[in-house]
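Entry for zinc ion complex. Fields follow.
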Amino acid sequence: MPIELERRQWLQTVAAGSLALWGGTPAQAAPRFSEEDLSAARALMSAALSSGEAWRLASELATGIGARPAGSEGDRRAVAWAQRSLRELGLVNVGTQAIELNVWQRGPASARLLASASGDASRSLVVAALGNSISTPAQGVEAEVAWYPSLAALMDEPSDPLRSRARGRIVFIDQKTERARDGSGYSRSVGARVAGPVEAARRGAVAFGLRSVGTSGGSPPGPDAPTDAARDLGRIAHTGTTRYDLRVPMIPAFAVSVPDADVMAARVAAGHTLRLSLQMQNRSDVPARTHNVMAEVAGTDLAHEAVLIGAHLDSWDLGQGAVDDGAGVAIVSAAAALIARAAREGRRPRRTVRVVLFANEENGFDGAIAYGKAHAHVPHQVVAESDFGGGRIYRLSSRVQPAALPLFAQMAELLKPLGVEAGDNNGNPGPDAAFLMRNHQWPGLQLSQDGTRYFDVHHTERDTIDQLDPADLQQNVACWAAVAWMSAQAPLSFAPLPALRR
Ligand SMILES: [Zn+2]
Protein backbone atom coordinates (compact mmCIF):
# COMPACT_ATOMS: atom_id res chain seq x y z
CA MET A 1 0.00 0.00 0.00
CA PRO A 2 1.50 3.37 -0.97
CA ILE A 3 2.53 5.33 2.11
CA GLU A 4 0.36 8.33 1.20
CA LEU A 5 -2.82 6.26 1.08
CA GLU A 6 -2.01 4.59 4.38
CA ARG A 7 -1.52 7.97 6.04
CA ARG A 8 -4.81 9.25 4.68
CA GLN A 9 -6.67 6.21 6.05
CA TRP A 10 -5.07 6.77 9.44
CA LEU A 11 -6.13 10.44 9.45
CA GLN A 12 -9.68 9.42 8.58
CA THR A 13 -9.74 6.99 11.50
CA VAL A 14 -8.50 9.69 13.90
CA ALA A 15 -11.05 12.17 12.59
CA ALA A 16 -13.89 9.68 13.01
CA GLY A 17 -12.77 9.06 16.60
CA SER A 18 -12.79 12.74 17.50
CA LEU A 19 -16.14 13.17 15.79
CA ALA A 20 -17.64 10.59 18.11
CA LEU A 21 -16.82 12.94 20.99
CA TRP A 22 -19.07 15.70 19.76
CA GLY A 23 -21.75 13.50 18.25
CA GLY A 24 -21.23 14.38 14.60
CA THR A 25 -21.39 11.93 11.72
CA PRO A 26 -18.19 10.64 10.16
CA ALA A 27 -19.35 12.07 6.82
CA GLN A 28 -18.45 15.63 7.94
CA ALA A 29 -15.33 16.92 9.68
CA ALA A 30 -15.58 18.78 12.98
CA PRO A 31 -15.50 22.54 12.30
CA ARG A 32 -12.23 24.16 13.34
CA PHE A 33 -10.92 27.68 13.41
CA SER A 34 -7.89 28.26 11.22
CA GLU A 35 -4.49 28.85 12.81
CA GLU A 36 -4.61 32.32 11.28
CA ASP A 37 -7.89 33.16 13.05
CA LEU A 38 -6.61 31.78 16.34
CA SER A 39 -3.43 33.82 16.19
CA ALA A 40 -5.44 36.95 15.29
CA ALA A 41 -7.59 36.32 18.38
CA ARG A 42 -4.45 35.98 20.53
CA ALA A 43 -3.20 39.30 19.16
CA LEU A 44 -6.51 40.95 20.11
CA MET A 45 -6.28 39.50 23.61
CA SER A 46 -2.76 40.72 24.17
CA ALA A 47 -3.65 44.20 22.88
CA ALA A 48 -6.63 44.28 25.27
CA LEU A 49 -4.48 43.39 28.27
CA SER A 50 -2.32 46.48 27.76
CA SER A 51 -5.10 48.91 26.84
CA GLY A 52 -6.66 51.49 29.14
CA GLU A 53 -9.51 52.17 26.72
CA ALA A 54 -12.32 50.50 28.70
CA TRP A 55 -11.28 52.23 31.91
CA ARG A 56 -11.20 55.59 30.09
CA LEU A 57 -14.67 55.01 28.60
CA ALA A 58 -16.19 53.85 31.89
CA SER A 59 -14.72 56.87 33.69
CA GLU A 60 -16.01 59.32 31.10
CA LEU A 61 -19.50 57.87 31.21
CA ALA A 62 -19.69 57.47 35.00
CA THR A 63 -18.07 60.68 36.16
CA GLY A 64 -18.60 62.93 33.11
CA ILE A 65 -22.28 62.06 32.71
CA GLY A 66 -23.33 59.85 35.61
CA ALA A 67 -26.91 58.77 36.19
CA ARG A 68 -28.89 58.41 32.95
CA PRO A 69 -32.35 56.95 33.34
CA ALA A 70 -34.14 56.69 29.99
CA GLY A 71 -35.48 60.02 28.75
CA SER A 72 -33.44 62.11 31.22
CA GLU A 73 -30.94 64.84 30.43
CA GLY A 74 -28.19 62.38 31.46
CA ASP A 75 -29.55 59.88 28.93
CA ARG A 76 -29.48 62.50 26.14
CA ARG A 77 -25.87 63.34 26.97
CA ALA A 78 -24.94 59.65 27.14
CA VAL A 79 -26.42 59.00 23.68
CA ALA A 80 -24.37 61.88 22.22
CA TRP A 81 -21.24 60.73 24.08
CA ALA A 82 -21.63 57.13 22.91
CA GLN A 83 -21.91 58.12 19.25
CA ARG A 84 -18.90 60.41 19.48
CA SER A 85 -16.85 57.78 21.32
CA LEU A 86 -17.70 54.94 18.94
CA ARG A 87 -16.71 57.13 15.95
CA GLU A 88 -13.43 58.06 17.62
CA LEU A 89 -12.81 54.36 18.28
CA GLY A 90 -12.89 53.77 14.52
CA LEU A 91 -16.28 52.10 14.20
CA VAL A 92 -18.54 52.78 11.20
CA ASN A 93 -22.30 53.07 10.60
CA VAL A 94 -22.65 54.82 13.94
CA GLY A 95 -26.30 55.68 14.42
CA THR A 96 -29.26 55.77 16.74
CA GLN A 97 -32.77 54.38 16.85
CA ALA A 98 -35.27 56.77 18.44
CA ILE A 99 -37.81 55.34 20.87
CA GLU A 100 -40.85 57.17 22.27
CA LEU A 101 -41.87 56.04 25.72
CA ASN A 102 -43.41 57.09 29.01
CA VAL A 103 -40.98 57.24 31.90
CA TRP A 104 -41.12 57.22 35.67
CA GLN A 105 -39.35 59.95 37.67
CA ARG A 106 -38.26 59.70 41.28
CA GLY A 107 -39.14 62.40 43.81
CA PRO A 108 -38.26 62.69 47.50
CA ALA A 109 -38.85 59.72 49.81
CA SER A 110 -38.61 59.39 53.58
CA ALA A 111 -39.68 56.81 56.14
CA ARG A 112 -39.59 56.48 59.90
CA LEU A 113 -40.11 53.64 62.33
CA LEU A 114 -42.22 55.14 65.09
CA ALA A 115 -41.48 54.87 68.80
CA SER A 116 -43.33 51.93 70.32
CA ALA A 117 -45.04 51.09 73.58
CA SER A 118 -42.34 48.40 74.06
CA GLY A 119 -39.79 51.20 74.42
CA ASP A 120 -38.31 51.16 70.92
CA ALA A 121 -36.99 54.55 69.87
CA SER A 122 -38.17 56.25 66.73
CA ARG A 123 -35.72 55.66 63.86
CA SER A 124 -35.39 57.27 60.49
CA LEU A 125 -34.93 54.66 57.74
CA VAL A 126 -32.80 54.88 54.62
CA VAL A 127 -35.26 54.10 51.81
CA ALA A 128 -35.64 54.35 48.04
CA ALA A 129 -38.82 54.21 46.00
CA LEU A 130 -38.97 51.20 43.72
CA GLY A 131 -39.08 52.11 40.05
CA ASN A 132 -42.66 52.77 38.87
CA SER A 133 -43.92 53.28 42.43
CA ILE A 134 -46.81 55.68 42.82
CA SER A 135 -46.64 58.50 45.38
CA THR A 136 -48.14 58.42 48.83
CA PRO A 137 -50.91 60.93 49.54
CA ALA A 138 -49.38 64.33 50.34
CA GLN A 139 -49.75 63.75 54.09
CA GLY A 140 -48.03 60.35 53.75
CA VAL A 141 -49.07 56.89 54.94
CA GLU A 142 -48.85 55.75 58.54
CA ALA A 143 -49.73 52.20 59.56
CA GLU A 144 -48.73 49.13 61.47
CA VAL A 145 -46.28 46.81 59.71
CA ALA A 146 -47.25 43.30 58.64
CA TRP A 147 -43.80 41.67 58.56
CA TYR A 148 -43.04 38.55 56.46
CA PRO A 149 -39.72 36.70 56.16
CA SER A 150 -40.24 36.09 52.43
CA LEU A 151 -42.56 36.60 49.50
CA ALA A 152 -43.55 32.94 49.85
CA ALA A 153 -44.76 33.61 53.41
CA LEU A 154 -47.00 36.41 52.13
CA MET A 155 -48.28 34.23 49.30
CA ASP A 156 -49.14 31.52 51.81
CA GLU A 157 -51.82 33.81 53.22
CA PRO A 158 -55.23 33.86 51.52
CA SER A 159 -55.54 36.51 48.84
CA ASP A 160 -58.86 37.57 50.39
CA PRO A 161 -58.21 40.88 52.25
CA LEU A 162 -60.74 39.93 54.93
CA ARG A 163 -58.61 36.93 55.89
CA SER A 164 -55.10 38.43 55.58
CA ARG A 165 -53.16 40.30 58.26
CA ALA A 166 -51.84 42.51 55.42
CA ARG A 167 -55.16 44.34 55.35
CA GLY A 168 -54.84 48.03 56.23
CA ARG A 169 -51.12 47.56 57.02
CA ILE A 170 -47.79 48.25 55.38
CA VAL A 171 -46.52 44.87 54.17
CA PHE A 172 -42.79 44.40 54.71
CA ILE A 173 -40.88 41.49 53.18
CA ASP A 174 -37.54 40.71 54.80
CA GLN A 175 -36.17 38.35 52.17
CA LYS A 176 -32.34 38.26 52.24
CA THR A 177 -30.20 38.28 49.14
CA GLU A 178 -27.40 35.72 49.45
CA ARG A 179 -23.96 36.54 48.07
CA ALA A 180 -23.00 34.30 45.14
CA ARG A 181 -20.43 34.44 42.35
CA ASP A 182 -23.07 33.75 39.71
CA GLY A 183 -25.72 36.12 41.08
CA SER A 184 -28.10 33.28 41.93
CA GLY A 185 -28.92 34.91 45.30
CA TYR A 186 -30.43 37.87 43.43
CA SER A 187 -32.43 35.58 41.16
CA ARG A 188 -34.00 34.04 44.26
CA SER A 189 -34.86 37.34 46.02
CA VAL A 190 -35.77 39.71 43.19
CA GLY A 191 -39.24 38.20 42.80
CA ALA A 192 -40.27 39.94 46.03
CA ARG A 193 -39.40 43.30 44.51
CA VAL A 194 -41.18 42.68 41.22
CA ALA A 195 -44.32 40.87 42.45
CA GLY A 196 -44.51 42.08 46.07
CA PRO A 197 -46.63 45.24 45.63
CA VAL A 198 -49.35 43.39 43.70
CA GLU A 199 -49.46 40.48 46.16
CA ALA A 200 -49.57 42.89 49.12
CA ALA A 201 -52.30 45.05 47.54
CA ARG A 202 -54.34 41.96 46.67
CA ARG A 203 -54.45 41.28 50.42
CA GLY A 204 -55.48 44.83 51.29
CA ALA A 205 -52.11 46.42 52.17
CA VAL A 206 -51.78 50.23 52.05
CA ALA A 207 -48.08 50.23 51.12
CA PHE A 208 -45.27 47.77 50.40
CA GLY A 209 -41.70 47.75 51.66
CA LEU A 210 -38.89 45.24 51.48
CA ARG A 211 -35.33 44.61 52.61
CA SER A 212 -33.17 45.93 49.77
CA VAL A 213 -32.50 43.31 47.15
CA GLY A 214 -28.74 43.56 47.55
CA THR A 215 -25.74 42.32 49.53
CA SER A 216 -24.70 45.63 51.07
CA GLY A 217 -24.72 46.18 54.81
CA GLY A 218 -22.03 43.84 56.07
CA SER A 219 -22.45 40.44 57.67
CA PRO A 220 -25.21 39.48 60.10
CA PRO A 221 -24.56 39.94 63.85
CA GLY A 222 -22.20 37.34 65.27
CA PRO A 223 -18.66 37.08 66.66
CA ASP A 224 -17.33 38.85 63.54
CA ALA A 225 -20.05 41.50 63.43
CA PRO A 226 -18.76 44.74 61.92
CA THR A 227 -18.75 47.90 63.97
CA ASP A 228 -21.73 50.24 63.86
CA ALA A 229 -19.69 52.63 61.76
CA ALA A 230 -18.91 49.91 59.22
CA ARG A 231 -22.55 48.90 59.14
CA ASP A 232 -23.53 52.49 58.46
CA LEU A 233 -21.43 52.40 55.29
CA GLY A 234 -23.93 49.85 54.06
CA ARG A 235 -26.95 52.02 54.85
CA ILE A 236 -27.96 52.36 51.23
CA ALA A 237 -31.25 51.41 49.64
CA HIS A 238 -31.33 49.42 46.38
CA THR A 239 -33.96 50.54 43.89
CA GLY A 240 -35.12 48.50 40.87
CA THR A 241 -38.19 48.00 38.81
CA THR A 242 -41.51 46.82 40.19
CA ARG A 243 -44.85 46.45 38.47
CA TYR A 244 -48.54 46.84 39.03
CA ASP A 245 -51.54 44.88 37.85
CA LEU A 246 -54.42 47.03 36.64
CA ARG A 247 -56.92 44.69 38.34
CA VAL A 248 -55.35 45.36 41.76
CA PRO A 249 -55.02 48.72 43.58
CA MET A 250 -51.63 50.41 43.14
CA ILE A 251 -49.82 51.01 46.44
CA PRO A 252 -46.55 52.88 47.13
CA ALA A 253 -43.49 50.58 47.11
CA PHE A 254 -40.07 51.15 48.64
CA ALA A 255 -36.81 49.42 49.59
CA VAL A 256 -35.16 49.77 53.02
CA SER A 257 -31.39 49.59 53.58
CA VAL A 258 -30.11 46.24 54.84
CA PRO A 259 -28.95 47.57 58.28
CA ASP A 260 -32.36 49.22 58.79
CA ALA A 261 -34.11 46.00 57.82
CA ASP A 262 -31.92 44.23 60.40
CA VAL A 263 -33.19 46.62 63.09
CA MET A 264 -36.78 45.94 62.04
CA ALA A 265 -36.16 42.18 62.12
CA ALA A 266 -34.63 42.41 65.61
CA ARG A 267 -37.67 44.30 66.93
CA VAL A 268 -40.02 41.77 65.38
CA ALA A 269 -37.98 38.91 66.88
CA ALA A 270 -38.37 40.59 70.29
CA GLY A 271 -42.13 40.45 69.78
CA HIS A 272 -42.57 44.19 69.28
CA THR A 273 -45.15 45.75 66.98
CA LEU A 274 -43.75 48.02 64.27
CA ARG A 275 -45.44 51.19 63.08
CA LEU A 276 -44.07 53.03 60.11
CA SER A 277 -44.71 56.36 58.42
CA LEU A 278 -43.83 56.89 54.77
CA GLN A 279 -43.80 59.82 52.38
CA MET A 280 -42.90 59.55 48.70
CA GLN A 281 -43.56 61.74 45.70
CA ASN A 282 -42.86 60.33 42.23
CA ARG A 283 -44.10 61.04 38.71
CA SER A 284 -45.37 58.36 36.37
CA ASP A 285 -46.14 58.25 32.64
CA VAL A 286 -44.04 61.27 31.67
CA PRO A 287 -43.75 61.33 27.84
CA ALA A 288 -40.09 61.10 26.79
CA ARG A 289 -37.73 59.96 24.07
CA THR A 290 -34.64 57.76 24.25
CA HIS A 291 -32.31 56.02 21.78
CA ASN A 292 -30.50 52.79 21.08
CA VAL A 293 -26.96 53.50 19.85
CA MET A 294 -25.39 51.22 17.26
CA ALA A 295 -22.00 51.00 15.54
CA GLU A 296 -20.21 48.42 13.42
CA VAL A 297 -17.01 46.92 12.16
CA ALA A 298 -18.04 45.96 8.63
CA GLY A 299 -17.61 42.33 7.63
CA THR A 300 -16.39 40.87 4.33
CA ASP A 301 -17.86 37.75 2.65
CA LEU A 302 -20.54 37.28 5.37
CA ALA A 303 -21.09 40.99 6.08
CA HIS A 304 -24.88 40.54 6.02
CA GLU A 305 -24.65 38.43 9.21
CA ALA A 306 -24.30 40.22 12.55
CA VAL A 307 -22.29 39.34 15.63
CA LEU A 308 -24.09 41.47 18.22
CA ILE A 309 -22.14 42.50 21.32
CA GLY A 310 -24.21 44.75 23.55
CA ALA A 311 -24.64 46.50 26.87
CA HIS A 312 -27.25 48.93 28.13
CA LEU A 313 -26.62 52.64 28.07
CA ASP A 314 -29.28 53.65 30.60
CA SER A 315 -28.85 53.39 34.36
CA TRP A 316 -30.93 53.97 37.44
CA ASP A 317 -31.04 57.53 38.70
CA LEU A 318 -29.05 56.81 41.88
CA GLY A 319 -25.24 56.73 41.67
CA GLN A 320 -23.25 57.01 38.45
CA GLY A 321 -24.26 53.80 36.68
CA ALA A 322 -20.58 52.78 36.61
CA VAL A 323 -21.06 49.12 37.47
CA ASP A 324 -24.57 48.85 35.95
CA ASP A 325 -23.90 49.20 33.13
CA GLY A 326 -21.12 51.68 32.40
CA ALA A 327 -18.71 48.75 32.68
CA GLY A 328 -20.53 46.79 29.98
CA VAL A 329 -20.70 49.80 27.65
CA ALA A 330 -16.97 50.33 28.07
CA ILE A 331 -16.06 46.64 27.68
CA VAL A 332 -17.95 45.93 24.44
CA SER A 333 -17.00 49.30 22.91
CA ALA A 334 -13.32 48.76 23.66
CA ALA A 335 -13.49 45.18 22.35
CA ALA A 336 -15.06 46.34 19.07
CA ALA A 337 -12.45 49.11 18.82
CA LEU A 338 -9.66 46.49 18.84
CA ILE A 339 -11.37 44.57 16.04
CA ALA A 340 -11.81 47.84 14.11
CA ARG A 341 -8.10 48.54 14.45
CA ALA A 342 -7.23 45.03 13.23
CA ALA A 343 -9.58 45.61 10.26
CA ARG A 344 -7.74 48.82 9.35
CA GLU A 345 -4.51 46.84 9.49
CA GLY A 346 -5.91 44.35 6.97
CA ARG A 347 -7.56 41.69 9.17
CA ARG A 348 -11.23 42.38 8.55
CA PRO A 349 -13.84 40.07 10.09
CA ARG A 350 -15.99 37.89 7.84
CA ARG A 351 -19.25 38.78 9.60
CA THR A 352 -20.17 42.29 10.73
CA VAL A 353 -19.42 42.99 14.39
CA ARG A 354 -22.20 45.20 15.69
CA VAL A 355 -22.15 47.06 19.00
CA VAL A 356 -25.64 47.81 20.36
CA LEU A 357 -26.03 50.02 23.42
CA PHE A 358 -29.61 49.34 24.46
CA ALA A 359 -32.02 51.96 25.79
CA ASN A 360 -34.02 51.56 28.99
CA GLU A 361 -33.04 48.05 29.99
CA GLU A 362 -33.74 48.98 33.59
CA ASN A 363 -37.37 49.93 33.38
CA GLY A 364 -39.10 48.46 30.36
CA PHE A 365 -36.74 46.78 27.82
CA ASP A 366 -37.85 49.36 25.26
CA GLY A 367 -34.45 49.29 23.54
CA ALA A 368 -34.37 45.51 23.05
CA ILE A 369 -37.98 45.45 21.84
CA ALA A 370 -37.35 48.25 19.32
CA TYR A 371 -34.09 46.73 18.10
CA GLY A 372 -35.74 43.35 17.54
CA LYS A 373 -38.56 44.93 15.52
CA ALA A 374 -36.22 46.96 13.33
CA HIS A 375 -33.66 44.19 12.70
CA ALA A 376 -35.82 41.06 12.67
CA HIS A 377 -34.73 40.35 9.08
CA VAL A 378 -30.97 40.45 9.82
CA PRO A 379 -29.38 37.01 10.35
CA HIS A 380 -27.63 37.14 13.71
CA GLN A 381 -24.76 34.74 14.16
CA VAL A 382 -24.89 35.41 17.89
CA VAL A 383 -26.18 37.92 20.45
CA ALA A 384 -24.43 38.64 23.75
CA GLU A 385 -24.53 41.38 26.35
CA SER A 386 -22.13 42.51 29.08
CA ASP A 387 -24.36 43.50 32.00
CA PHE A 388 -22.95 42.16 35.24
CA GLY A 389 -20.48 44.85 36.26
CA GLY A 390 -16.72 44.76 35.87
CA GLY A 391 -15.77 41.52 37.66
CA ARG A 392 -13.47 39.05 35.93
CA ILE A 393 -14.88 36.55 33.46
CA TYR A 394 -14.62 32.92 34.57
CA ARG A 395 -16.73 30.94 32.10
CA LEU A 396 -17.78 30.86 28.45
CA SER A 397 -21.16 29.26 27.71
CA SER A 398 -23.07 28.99 24.48
CA ARG A 399 -26.59 28.58 23.13
CA VAL A 400 -25.90 27.37 19.60
CA GLN A 401 -26.59 24.45 17.31
CA PRO A 402 -24.74 21.34 18.54
CA ALA A 403 -22.62 21.15 15.39
CA ALA A 404 -20.98 24.45 16.41
CA LEU A 405 -19.90 23.20 19.84
CA PRO A 406 -16.38 22.16 18.77
CA LEU A 407 -15.82 25.83 17.90
CA PHE A 408 -16.83 26.86 21.43
CA ALA A 409 -14.46 24.26 22.84
CA GLN A 410 -11.70 25.92 20.84
CA MET A 411 -12.77 29.37 22.00
CA ALA A 412 -12.75 28.26 25.64
CA GLU A 413 -9.29 26.75 25.17
CA LEU A 414 -8.10 30.08 23.80
CA LEU A 415 -9.47 31.96 26.85
CA LYS A 416 -8.07 29.46 29.37
CA PRO A 417 -4.92 31.50 30.13
CA LEU A 418 -7.27 34.34 31.23
CA GLY A 419 -8.86 32.09 33.87
CA VAL A 420 -11.91 31.16 31.80
CA GLU A 421 -13.42 27.67 31.84
CA ALA A 422 -15.76 26.01 29.35
CA GLY A 423 -19.47 26.10 30.24
CA ASP A 424 -22.46 24.28 28.82
CA ASN A 425 -24.81 24.97 25.91
CA ASN A 426 -27.46 26.53 28.15
CA GLY A 427 -25.93 30.01 28.48
CA ASN A 428 -27.87 33.18 29.26
CA PRO A 429 -26.57 35.96 26.99
CA GLY A 430 -27.71 38.89 29.20
CA PRO A 431 -31.08 40.63 29.70
CA ASP A 432 -31.59 42.45 26.37
CA ALA A 433 -29.79 39.73 24.41
CA ALA A 434 -31.80 36.97 26.08
CA PHE A 435 -34.99 38.79 25.10
CA LEU A 436 -33.77 38.87 21.49
CA MET A 437 -32.62 35.26 21.60
CA ARG A 438 -36.03 34.08 22.75
CA ASN A 439 -38.10 36.30 20.49
CA HIS A 440 -36.03 35.97 17.33
CA GLN A 441 -34.42 32.55 17.76
CA TRP A 442 -30.94 34.08 17.47
CA PRO A 443 -28.09 32.05 19.00
CA GLY A 444 -26.45 33.42 22.14
CA LEU A 445 -23.29 33.23 24.15
CA GLN A 446 -22.46 34.13 27.74
CA LEU A 447 -19.24 35.32 29.33
CA SER A 448 -20.00 34.81 33.04
CA GLN A 449 -18.46 37.42 35.33
CA ASP A 450 -17.59 37.10 38.99
CA GLY A 451 -20.57 38.80 40.65
CA THR A 452 -19.57 38.19 44.27
CA ARG A 453 -19.52 41.95 44.96
CA TYR A 454 -21.91 43.05 42.21
CA PHE A 455 -25.00 43.33 44.41
CA ASP A 456 -23.21 45.35 47.11
CA VAL A 457 -23.84 48.54 45.14
CA HIS A 458 -26.32 47.44 42.45
CA HIS A 459 -29.02 50.10 41.83
CA THR A 460 -27.71 52.35 44.64
CA GLU A 461 -26.04 55.72 45.10
CA ARG A 462 -22.75 53.83 45.58
CA ASP A 463 -22.66 52.49 42.04
CA THR A 464 -19.68 54.73 41.31
CA ILE A 465 -16.46 54.49 39.31
CA ASP A 466 -14.32 53.48 42.33
CA GLN A 467 -16.17 50.14 42.32
CA LEU A 468 -14.47 49.16 39.04
CA ASP A 469 -10.97 47.77 38.64
CA PRO A 470 -8.94 48.70 35.53
CA ALA A 471 -7.16 45.32 35.30
CA ASP A 472 -10.44 43.41 35.56
CA LEU A 473 -11.86 45.53 32.73
CA GLN A 474 -8.85 44.62 30.57
CA GLN A 475 -9.48 40.91 31.15
CA ASN A 476 -13.12 41.44 30.13
CA VAL A 477 -12.16 43.28 26.96
CA ALA A 478 -9.70 40.53 26.05
CA CYS A 479 -12.43 37.88 26.34
CA TRP A 480 -15.04 39.91 24.46
CA ALA A 481 -12.68 40.87 21.63
CA ALA A 482 -11.65 37.24 21.19
CA VAL A 483 -15.16 35.74 21.20
CA ALA A 484 -16.57 38.48 18.95
CA TRP A 485 -13.76 37.93 16.49
CA MET A 486 -14.07 34.13 16.56
CA SER A 487 -17.85 34.30 16.17
CA ALA A 488 -17.33 36.53 13.14
CA GLN A 489 -14.78 34.09 11.64
CA ALA A 490 -16.59 30.85 12.46
CA PRO A 491 -16.64 28.38 9.53
CA LEU A 492 -20.30 27.61 10.17
CA SER A 493 -23.43 29.30 11.42
CA PHE A 494 -24.28 29.09 15.13
CA ALA A 495 -27.98 28.89 14.13
CA PRO A 496 -30.41 27.25 14.48
CA LEU A 497 -30.94 27.91 18.16
CA PRO A 498 -31.46 24.68 20.10
CA ALA A 499 -34.66 24.23 22.13
CA LEU A 500 -34.65 26.53 25.17
CA ARG A 501 -34.45 24.84 28.53
CA ARG A 502 -34.78 28.00 30.64
ZN1 LIG B 1 -27.88 46.31 34.07
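NOTE: The pocket of zinc ion is lined by residues 312, 324-325, 361, 387 (CB under 6 Å).
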